[in-house]
Write a structure and sequence with these properties.
There is one protein chain. Helix content is about 10%, strand content about 45%. The protein has 3 helices and 15 strands. The two termini are about 20 Å apart.
Length: about 220
């Protein structure tokens, strides 16, 4: 994979090679959490099987599945293997800081992978800024703000096969986020939200289904 020598210090890894004690509730273990209790009436949405983490939205859920793990760093990287089994599926890596209150739910930035495209979005200075979010919900955004928000995302075309495993590397350095798949750079975007001094939480955001394995989180400290 690209950037192999630049990932930094490994601060967390999980290969999901373990069993659950029951099959009705999420029981991910190793520090992982989910929003199944608050958003899916406690129904299971994360299943460990075949040495991987299968994430799937329950029919009663009122929000995308969010699978969380602490990930505290300033600059760093997340590496994992993923598989999308349907053309409509996607996997988001959402980075958050719940201690930062000017944004909704700590949202800083997100990269979303689907079979057809990659999207990188600065949420801290974009849609999740509380003042902007309130105006957006009220329908009172000015034309200037609407234009500004267009600068907070960048989309890149992809051609991923369903049912196939891919290696993903998301690297954050200063205000730049770079995404590589199977060792090849597929997109990079610079925006001030990425430079937030402390990323504290990784959220795997899944609106439908996704399979994840071999998660590794790295910290590089100061900007390299």
């Amino acid at each position: 994979m690209a950037f192999a020598g630049e990932r930094g210090t490994l601060i967390f890894e999980d290969d999901f090679e373990r069993n659950e004690s029951q099959e009705t509730k999420d029981e991910i273990g190793k520090g992982w959490g989910s929003n199944s209790r608050s958003r899916a009436k406690g129904n299971k949405q994360v299943d460990l099987r075949n040495g991987a983490m299968y994430i799937y939205i329950h029919k009663v859920a009122d929000h995308a599945v969010s699978v969380t793990h602490p990930a505290e760093f300033k600059n760093g990287a997340v590496a994992l293997r993923f598989m999308l089994e349907d053309p409509k599926d996607s996997l988001g890596l959402n980075f958050a800081d719940l201690k930062y209150k000017p944004v909704h739910a700590g949202h800083l930035f997100v990269t979303k992978i689907s079979p057809k495209n990659l999207m990188i979005t600065d949420l801290k200075t974009g849609n999740m800024d509380l003042k902007i979010r309130d105006q957006r919900k009220a329908g009172t955004l000015s034309p200037e703000l609407k234009e500004m928000l267009k600068t907070k995302s960048k989309r890149f075309p992809l051609k991923l096969e369903t049912g196939k495993w891919y290696d993903l590397l998301v690297s954050i350095d200063g205000d730049t986020l770079t995404v590589s798949i199977d060792g090849k750079k597929v997109g990079s975007f610079s925006s001030e939200g990425m430079a937030h001094p402390t990323k504290r939480l990784l959220r795997l955001a899944v609106p439908r289904n996704a399979v994840v394995d071999d998660v590794k989180i790295y910290s590089r400290g100061e900007k390299s």
